[in-house]
Design goal:
Number of helices: 5
Low-confidence stretches: none
Number of strands: 11
Strand content: 15-25%
Shape: globular
Radius of gyration: 15 Å
Structural class: alpha/beta
Oligomer: single chain
Strand order of the largest sheet: 5-2-1-6-7-11-10
Largest sheet: 7 strands, mixed
Mean pLDDT: 97
């Protein structure tokens, strides 16, 4: 089974990262969190320390089903290795997802050119070339999925479940979560 890699950077938004991981695991998908820092312990935007499953240098990207960037901080744009992997992955038509501030990484890499996308209010200027859909919680355009922000994490994560495991699995997980 391929793996969904969720990147953690100092200042990440805990709801977006952990909520997404939780929902994907409820769908029986193989998910691993990846530290983009010098330690497996990564401190979130609200000072919650989280221990990642892997360090960035330990990831075998050939096993990836999807790469996911939670938001919370623009620092994701500073990790050159992660950006290189996201760019290569997306250019091969593989699935990439970003929520909140993180679609700015995709915009900076040119991956949103001519694509529909959304992001956290105030980050629109970084979605270079995108057709902004900021009234939507989640936008899927080809292999790129973007989400608006923390309060919409469940919508974002359920959309990822649908992409990776189908609508029936999405509906089952949504039902278990009491989401209509």
């Amino acid at each position: 089974m391929k793996t969904i890699f969720v990147f953690l950077m100092t200042g990440f938004e805990e709801i977006e990262a952990l909520g997404t991981i939780d929902v994907l695991r409820r769908a029986d998908l193989n998910v691993k969190s990846v530290s983009l820092t010098e330690s497996k312990q990564v401190v979130s935007s609200h000072q919650v320390p989280v221990v990642a499953d892997l360090m960035f240098d330990e990831v075998d990207f050939s096993t990836a089903a999807m790469l996911v960037l939670p938001g919370g901080t623009p620092k994701y744009s500073e990790h050159e290795g992660m950006k290189k992997q996201v760019l290569a992955f997306a250019q091969k038509g593989e699935k990439v997802a970003a929520i909140c501030a993180s679609p700015m990484v995709l915009g900076g890499l040119g991956l949103l050119e001519g694509k529909n996308a959304t992001c956290y209010p105030g980050f629109e200027q970084y979605l270079t070339g995108a057709n902004l859909q900021t009234d939507k919680a989640v936008v899927v355009d080809g292999n790129i999925t973007t989400g608006r922000g923390p309060g919409l994490t469940i919508d974002f994560a359920l959309q990822l479940v649908e992409i990776l495991a189908g609508k029936e699995k999405r509906d089952a997980v949504a039902g278990d979560l009491l989401v209509k």
